[in-house]
Design a protein that fits this description.
The chain has eleven helices and 17 strands. Strand 13, helix 8 and strand 14 form a beta-alpha-beta unit. The strands form four sheets. Strands 3, 4, 5, 8, 9, 16 and 17 form a seven-stranded mixed beta sheet that branches. It has a six-stranded parallel beta sheet with strand order 12-11-10-13-14-15, with helices on both faces. A two-stranded antiparallel ribbon has the order 1-2. The protein has two domains: 2-141 and 312-345, Medium-chain alcohol dehydrogenases, catalytic domain (Quinone Oxidoreductase, Chain A, domain 1); 145-283, NAD(P)-binding Rossmann-like Domain (Rossmann fold, 3-Layer(aba) Sandwich). It is globular and about 60 Å long. Helices cover 28% and strands 27% of the residues. It has helices at 40-47, 92-95, 136-139, 142-154, 171-183, 195-203, 215-222, 238-246, 268-276, 297-307, 325-334; strands at residues 2-8, 11-16, 26-35, 59-67, 79-82, 85-86, 106-107, 119-123, 127-129, 163-167, 187-192, 209-211, 228-233, 248-256, 280-283, 316-321, 341-345. Bound molecules: zinc ion (ZN) (2 copies). One zinc ion is lined by residues 87-88, 90-91, 93-94, 102-104.
Length: 346
């Protein structure tokens, strides 16, 4: 099969590799679309993967090609998306179904071969069927949609009438904004430093999308000086972390979602304000997945797509054939052009 193989940090090649074979309890999935995650760029060009050579790509959907021995819940031809975290099932986190906290997890696309390829093998229990009416492009965005939903759930969700401020209007920030709208937020403000991202947020109906440098002033004017109920840091930048904290009202919630890109120094005044206002800080990590229940982040994300609560297709800025993906990933790294969600099509 054709695949993008990472041989070393920055050494990404489009080449032929043997098609993987599904073992017992595993399924071979023909990849239809695999999204490029914000984390893939540093993974490929800076940090590297857990081992080399490795095929990246963890946000994907496709069609079941072949089932290994004992597989019962899916059959060839089924449209599926895949939870990319392979949990051990033998640690205290797994015992409670908190797979994202598993102590011995494996991961498609960072620790074992993922979906920047024509085929990928995954355990049957990691597969979800894609509902009718949801395209495979949309289904390939289930992972980031679930991560965005999880972030708001960590803050106890959004109550109708609340104001939500989102710092960073990339794909994840825009998905958080859509979930906040679904949950009934009365005001949703998005901030970014990239004009195209601000414009895209406005096209999606988020009229309060602004350049970050005015964030505190705008939140103050939207909330009669009180601050936002929920602030989501979705950029991983020190300045936006401080802004998210500064914009939270008394008793407000701040969610740390973006992957940190540098050290942040908290000014004494802000530190003191966080205390006086009794602001709640929430870390969020990955998403919650369940095999046998349907109220987890993944099933909820797919249901939201099927019901039309989430509009994910406008987030797709590029659909790229696998053969051209090396070029696109380099362009993303170098910031050449505007990229929102990029889908690779094997
Ligand atoms: Zn991701
Ligand atoms: Zn575990």
């Amino acid at each position: 099969m054709n695949a993008l193989v990472l041989h070393a940090v920055g050494d990404l090649r489009y080449e032929q590799v043997p098609t993987p074979q599904p073992g017992a309890g595993e399924v071979l999935v023909r990849v239809a679309y695999c999204g490029v995650c914000g984390s893939d760029i540093p993974r490929i060009f800076v940090k590297g993967t857990y081992r080399f050579p490795l095929i990246c790509g963890h946000e994907f959907a496709g069609v079941v090609e072949r089932c290994g021995e004992g597989v019962q819940r899916v059959s060839p031809g089924d449209r599926v998306t895949v939870f990319p975290l392979l949990w051990c099932g033998r640690c205290s986190a797994c015992e409670r179904g908190r797979y994202a906290q598993c102590e011995h997890y494996d991961y498609l696309g960072s620790r074992r071969d993922g979906a920047f390829a024509e085929y990928v093998v995954a355990p049957e229990r990691n597969l979800l069927k894609v509902p009718d009416g949801v395209s495979l492009q949309e289904a390939a965005m289930t992972e980031p949609a679930a991560v965005a939903y999880h972030a708001l759930r960590r803050a106890g969700g959004v109550a109708p009438g609340e104001t939500v401020a989102i710092f960073g209007a990339g794909p994840i920030g825009l998905m958080v904004a859509q979930w906040a709208r679904v949950m009934g937020a009365s005001q949703i403000a998005l901030f970014d430093v990239v004009d195209e991202k601000i414009a895209l947020a406005q096209r999606l109906g988020f009229t309060h999308a602004y350049h970050s440098h005015r964030a505190e002033e705008i939140i103050a004017s939207l909330t009669q000086g009180k601050g936002a109920h929920v602030c989501v840091e979705a950029a991983g930048v020190p300045q936006t972390l401080l802004q998210a904290c500064a914009c939270a009202r008394s008793g407000g919630r701040v969610v740390l979602l973006g992957n940190p890109a540098g050290d942040a120094t908290v000014p004494t005044g802000l530190w003191s304000q966080l205390m006086r206002r009794e602001v709640n800080l929430f870390g969020t990590w990955n998403s919650e997945y369940a095999v046998y229940s349907e109220d987890d982040d993944w099933h909820t994300a797919l249901r939201a797509m099927a019901e039309g609560w989430l509009q994910l297709m406008p987030l797709v800025s590029h659909q790229v054939p696998l053969s051209e993906a090396v070029h696109t990933l380099h362009a993303m790294r170098e910031g050449k052009g505007f990229f929102c969600k990029v889908l690779i099509q094997p």
